[in-house]
Amino acid sequence: MVLDFYFDFASGYSYFASRRIDRLAADHGCVVRWHPLMLTALTTSTGVLPSPMVPIKWQYVLRDMHRTALAEGIPLRLCKAFPQPLLAPGRAMLWLRAHHGEEIALAFARTCFQAYYGDAVDIADVAVLQGIAAGLGVDRVAFAAGLAEPAIKAQFKQGNELALARGVFGVPFVMVEDEPFWGYDRLGQLEQWLISARRAA
Amino acid sequence: MVLDFYFDFASGYSYFASRRIDRLAADHGCVVRWHPLMLTALTTSTGVLPSPMVPIKWQYVLRDMHRTALAEGIPLRLCKAFPQPLLAPGRAMLWLRAHHGEEIALAFARTCFQAYYGDAVDIADVAVLQGIAAGLGVDRVAFAAGLAEPAIKAQFKQGNELALARGVFGVPFVMVEDEPFWGYDRLGQLEQWLISARRAA
How far is CA B131 from CA A128, A148, B2, B75, B108, in A? Predict the structure, then answer.
């Protein structure tokens, strides 16, 4: 089975999920397709206010993120720029997938998550992204040009629209066939669902 | 320690939490104070849209409620009136607490939750609430008059304001000292927190 994993580099709970999703899938004979989204475009479509815009809620979310990271042994060190919308890392991932293959694209995504949430590095900075790409053997100049390609921007935007059409209204979100799982705290139910699906097969 | 348990009879996840909170507290030598709130008043204050007003999200929430109920062995049978704002059960609980004591008030709250979520009975109907109260030995006429008392309405409203001032922006919500836990899916972290607090004491 295929797990469609929808995430935004701007979302801390997406970071948490990104660290578990591949192993969880492999444990149950599944593969993961990583889909970078822009949460603020989803929330604009649905009318939901992003959490950082609701101070009483955001104060709680920050506390919950740190408490959850501690409980689960996840490194968490945020940079001053957090929270902020992030477009470049998602576009970069799509460009890398098209030009350097899935493995490089995934390594890039994981390194971005680790840099932004584990090492307090601001991945809104294109120079930082170029450094990550260069570490994977990708040419810096071609990479920077790739991010700005209209076709890549359009593909990133279309990814959001396709996700919405499938019922994805937040991140992280995992869709397995038609079964939807929203939030890092639903990975346990996702795992139970995969176990039941294998038994039934 | 005291667990302040904030809930709304209109919230399915509050129902789930209501079934676990007392046992969880007792297991760790704590007591629970039950605070009925009106979620729609909280969301009006914070600007957050209630989930039923966001169709793509509400569709998911309904599915998640049923999946979670199944996974946790919680009876769930919804009436046609669900979802709807509910004022009368919360006001009734406050009136019962003032006039018949904590034990009757809690028995009433639990019976309301069971009726609305387990047995598909519409607890917006005052006659239904009168029946529940009568089953606990409370006079039906005095009960119906009690719900309509301006002082009870004011107390219910004030409960919402006090909760907001403490950082409560959704339900179910548990506050232990200054540590906040939002959502049925945070009861596990609440339990871990209580275990750590006892060890530290």
Answer: 66, 67, 31, 22, 10
